[in-house]
Amino acid sequence: MPQSEFNIIEQYFTRQRVQRDDVKLGIGDDAAILSVPPHMQLCIAIDTLVSGIHFPTNTSAEDIGYKALAVNLSDMAAMGAEPAWFTLALSLPTTRHEWLAGFAKGLFTLAEEYHLQLIGGDTTQGPLTVSIQIAGYLPRDTALPRAGARPGDSIYVSGTLGDAALGLRCLQQVDKYTCDTHALNRLNRPSPRIKIGQAIRDIASACIDISDGLLADLGHILTASQMGARLHRNHIPLSETMKALCTEDEDHYAMVLAGGDDYELCFCVSPDKASELDTIAAEHGVGLTRIGQVESQPGLRLYDGEKICKVNYQPGFEHFTG
Ligand code: ADP
Ligand code: MG
Fold first, then answer.
1. Does any ligand 1 atom lie closer than 6 A to the CB of residue 99?
2. Ligand 1 contact, 90 CB (< 6 A)
3. Is 119 in the pocket of ligand 1 (CB under 6 A)?
4. pLDDT digits over 35-59, tens only?
5. Which of 60, 75, 124, 156 has the fewest CB atoms within 10 Å, counting from its CB?
6. Domain 5-139 maps to which CATH number in 3.40.50.720, 3.40.1280.10, 3.40.50.970, 3.30.1330.10?
7. CA-proximal residue: ligand 1, atom 1 (nearest)
8. Which ligand gives the minimal distance to the CA of 30?
């Protein structure tokens, strides 16, 4: 039976385990009220997932709920912020209980892991679209900007790249790839690198999260910093799955360099911080790998050993180009 907007909010979104002391007023009024300590700054981001564009239409409700929050958390990670609250604008074609229950489960699983409280939102009928706005704290003037990379800085990435793109190839039934649960999991359940973002806050000169592919997102750092870079494609960290399933052909590099949906961090740091980064990586159990170096000469030069290679890939997903 279809449910009213107010039933949906009451049944699926107001009952949460996380109740934060800094929420003075949450769901139920015209707006939420939050307390922010004087030495902190607010850090806010929003990301929308549209069915069929940001996830395949047959993605499970639970994965959609999880991913919608994860991609927002990834933006907080890229700033070095500590996430605290989020709002949810949900546009639904129908109101099926199974779908809503699954969506809420995926969403709150991740919310609880990071002690995040849902503080409001909007529920409308329309094509399936999930917008989440996330907000958190940053100690005053400590944010990790995009513009800050300096010549000679090492370029690092967290985790491994290309897995989510491989997951998407599996779903699209590209014949040469076997369907693999690790790759699918990386596509549907990204791991936001919140702890890494906070740990590198005092040492990184620039940072971004990789949502549109390494080349595109590193490109944003370089443009903002008015720098160039050399990148060693053989140094890019790959999962065991990626190594097992892919040969080093053009499509392999397209996934690793321009696949998107990685939600890993790419950051620049002075080379004398290498051992500090090793400690951070070990502490958090997340690989941090040096893949290149910032240079003052503009442009991105991709190397295969000593050989410079041509970059043939689309520079990341762009809306409004077709
Ligand atoms: P208004 O008409 O004043 O915008 P709404 O009827 O849209 O209020 O929402 C009622 C309350 O429920 C508000 O506090 C709003 O923030 C909250 N709310 C609406 N939709 C959601 C949702 N999907 N998730 C969480 N809170 C929601
Ligand atoms: Mg409203």
1. no
2. yes
3. no
4. 999 999 999 999 999 999 999 999 9
5. 124
6. 3.30.1330.10
7. 30
8. 1
